[in-house]
TrEMBL record:
It comes from Paraglomus brasilianum. It comes from the Eukaryota. This is 8868_t:CDS:1.
Amino acid sequence: EDLFCHAIADIAYEWYSDVHTDGATLRIDACVITKFRVKLLIRKERVRRQDN
């Protein structure tokens, strides 16, 4: 599952790299992607707690 999250983030990062060539935009996008990854992990943790 974690690999799946990382794969999504990496693919998104590569896509953003292709679309936005200037570094400033890329940094912002990387931050957004990291937040997206964190949200996925938090959601997974909640589901895991409900199962127990």
